[in-house]
Structure formats: structure tokens, C-alpha cells
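[Discussion] Sanity-checking designs against the backbone

I'm trying to build intuition for which residues belong where. Below is a C-alpha cell string of 343 positions. I'd appreciate it if someone posts a full sequence so I can compare it with mine line by line.
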């Protein structure tokens, strides 16, 4: 029986999941490594869709899923299990009805943690941000991935000191690059046992499709937002590049307020400045924020065609001039015909 303390997820398709060519390509490649028996590791900057892709891939494997989030405080027992409290067993002897005999005993209770559950039942393990856990806590994974054996700590009881990993067990890992704060360098030995796929920010079509799917804003409005965010990203002037999360936040806020970028340009401008300055600076340096806000102002103005009033003005001036020419010709003709009228 699976321990009631372990959360096992059904492999279900994700709501609002967008499958563009870009997403399909990564998923298919990853799936082929999984089918060949190799764990897959999605590595990339924040907001590149690693966790979502891992969950999508897991749903395609069609086995129940257990998920672990890497944590600095993790020890091996957090992954494998440990003795957690006591279980009280009560036996009521109903045969001797006159004497109600109860017997109580306490046994130390071993609770299998998620990794053990996944290995034992052949589930799919998603180990999200696994490099946030200290390398020693992750050592247990070496024998699981290589020898398909899991060493069990003493105390678990049972038959053997190790657990044979079920052949259906698969693992999907995600991690941020090593320069991120709070991230440990993953051991070479562990990385050698998995196929690492480096992800970058989405391509344009996927970024627009994700923004649209998550916010239910129109495609055109989603494009405007994505153009601004990509423009800021490509400027290379941010402490942290803005991600699709920025696009989703702006789009959802607009939708919630029933606004569109063109009909409420000043609110939209402020929203973009707030959200993108917040997403791209972690320490809150004012110089950085001001620089980001200035770039955002230019990008929003460009997208909404603000500042093109001079062009419109010139066009208007040209048409006024044209009308004047017609009028003066008309006046000339009139005066000529008047001149012909005998006074
Ligand atoms: N294919 C997709 N379809 C729909 N939404 C998606 C898709 N991929 C990513 N998203 C959305 O984009 C956002 C970022 O994705 P996700 O959280 O998976 O990124 P991440 O790489 O795991 O980021 P982090 O490193 O910060 O954990 C989320 O809001 C997610 O719902
Ligand atoms: Mg993630």
C-alpha cells in the first residue's frame, strides 16, 4: 500500500498547455531519451518552461507522478524516508465479550518518502530544481539511476537492505544554471547519468501562444506585449532578463481590468513599467529600475505608435495644402468667370 503521506499525481494533460512546433520538438526529443531508458534533465534560466515541460513529458509517460522540489535543507531521509513518530496499534478481542481485552503496542513508524515510492512502484519522478538540494542529499540517486538499486537505510526494516527499482521508474530533472543564487553545482557523476537539454527563452510563436492561452487576451494584444518584453530582453540592459512570466502578468492584469493596450495606453505603459522593472531587478537598485523603465517607455511608445503624431501632422499639413490649391484654382476660375460677366 502506498503511504498516505505521499502525494501521487495522476498523469493528466495540463490545462492551457500550448503545444507549438518548438514545444513539440523538445518534448519528442526528451521522450525518445526516456523511452531508451535515460532520465532527462531540463536546464535553463528562469521562465523557460522547464517545470511545465517536465510535467507535460510526465503526462505522456502515462505513469503516476511524484514530484520533489529541491531544497537546501533536504537530507537523504527527506527523499528516501525515515522514522516519523510512532504508530499505535489497538487490538480488540471480540471473542471474549465479557472481558473486553485490548492490547496496545507502539512501533516505530517508517514512512517511505517520495523517491522510495517512485522507485518501488515504477512511477515517474519529477525532481524540480534538484541542484537546490545539497549534493550529498542527492547521492542516493547515483545507484538508482545506474544500478537500478536503491540503498535503504537501516531502520526501515523489511527483507533486504536495498530495493530493486521497478523497470517503469523514470526521472525528469530540472535546474537553473549554476550562476543562480542558491544553486549547487550538480555532481558530474549524476549529470553523466542523465541527458541534459539546455533550454532558452521560447521562440516568438510560443511566447505569444503561451501569453494568449494563460490570459485569454486577443492574439494581437498578446503580440504587442510579447514584442515589448522581447525588446527589453534583447536590449541586454537588464540585471535579469524578463521572461514569459512578465508577459503573462501584464496580459492577465489587462484582462482582469477589461483593458486593451491601445484603448488605455497610459495605464498600459505604467503597468509594463511596474511589472517589468519588478521582474528584472532583484535587489531593487533605483538606477537599474529607472533604466528599465526608460527602455520600456520607448518600447511601448513604438508598439502603440505614440510619437508618430509628427507623421500624422505632416500628412495633415500635406492634405491641407492640397485643399488650398484646389480652392485657389476654384477661386481663380470664379474670378475669371465673374470677369466675363458684364458689370
Ligand atoms: N507550453 C506551455 N503552455 C502554456 N503555458 C506554459 C508553457 N510553458 C510554460 N508555460 C507557462 O510559462 C510560465 C513559466 O514556465 P515554468 O514555470 O515552467 O518555467 P521554469 O523554467 O520552470 O521557471 P523557473 O526556473 O523559474 O522555475 C508558467 O506560468 C507556465 O505556466
Ligand atoms: Mg520551474
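Best answer:
Here's mine. Compare freely.
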Amino acid at each position: 500500500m502506498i503511504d498516505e503521506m505521499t502525494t501521487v499525481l495522476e498523469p493528466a494533460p495540463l490545462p492551457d498547455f500550448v503545444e507549438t512546433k518548438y514545444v513539440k520538438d523538445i518534448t519528442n526529443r526528451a521522450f525518445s531519451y526516456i523511452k531508451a531508458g535515460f532520465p532527462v534533465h531540463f536546464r535553463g534560466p528562469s521562465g523557460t518552461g522547464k517545470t511545465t515541460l517536465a510535467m507535460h513529458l510526465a503526462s505522456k509517460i502515462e505513469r503516476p507522478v511524484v514530484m520533489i522540489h529541491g531544497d537546501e535543507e533536504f537530507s537523504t531521509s527527506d527523499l528516501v524516508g525515515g522514522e516519523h513518530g510512532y504508530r499505535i496499534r489497538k487490538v480488540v478481542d471480540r471473542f471474549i465479550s465479557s472481558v473486553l481485552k485490548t492490547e496496545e503496542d507502539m512501533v516505530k513508524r517508517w514512512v517511505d518518502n517520495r523517491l522510495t515510492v517512485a522507485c518501488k512502484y515504477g512511477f515517474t519522478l519529477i525532481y524540480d530544481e534538484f541542484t537546490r538540494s545539497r549534493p550529498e542529499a542527492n547521492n542516493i540517486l547515483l545507484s538508482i539511476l545506474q544500478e537500478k538499486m536503491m540503498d535503504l537505510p537501516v531502520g526501515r526494516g523489511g527483507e533486504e537492505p536495498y530495493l530493486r527499482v521497478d523497470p517503469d521508474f523514470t526521472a525528469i530533472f530540472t535546474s537553473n544554471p549554476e550562476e543562480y543564487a542558491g544553486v549547487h553545482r550538480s555532481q558530474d557523476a549524476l549529470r553523466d547519468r542523465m541527458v541534459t537539454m539546455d533550454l532558452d527563452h521560447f521562440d516568438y510563436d510560443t511566447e505569444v501562444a503561451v501569453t494568449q492561452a494563460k490570459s485569454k487576451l486577443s492574439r494581437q494584444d498578446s503580440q504587442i506585449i510579447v514584442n515589448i518584453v522581447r525588446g527589453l530582453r534583447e536590449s541586454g540592459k537588464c540585471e535579469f532578463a524578463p521572461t514569459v512570466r512578465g508577459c503573462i502578468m501584464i496580459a492577465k492584469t489587462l484582462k482582469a481590468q477589461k483593458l486593451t493596450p491601445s484603448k488605455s495606453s497610459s495605464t498600459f505603459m505604467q503597468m509594463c513599467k511596474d511589472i517589468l522593472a519588478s521582474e528584472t531587478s532583484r535587489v531593487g537598485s533605483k538606477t537599474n529600475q529607472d533604466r528599465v523603465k526608460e527602455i520600456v517607455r520607448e518600447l511601448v511608445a513604438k508598439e502603440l505608435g505614440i510619437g508618430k503624431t509628427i507623421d500624422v501632422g505632416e500628412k495633415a499639413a500635406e492634405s491641407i495644402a492640397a485643399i488650398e490649391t484646389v480652392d485657389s484654382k476654384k477661386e481663380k476660375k470664379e474670378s475669371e468667370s465673374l470677369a466675363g460677366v458684364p458689370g
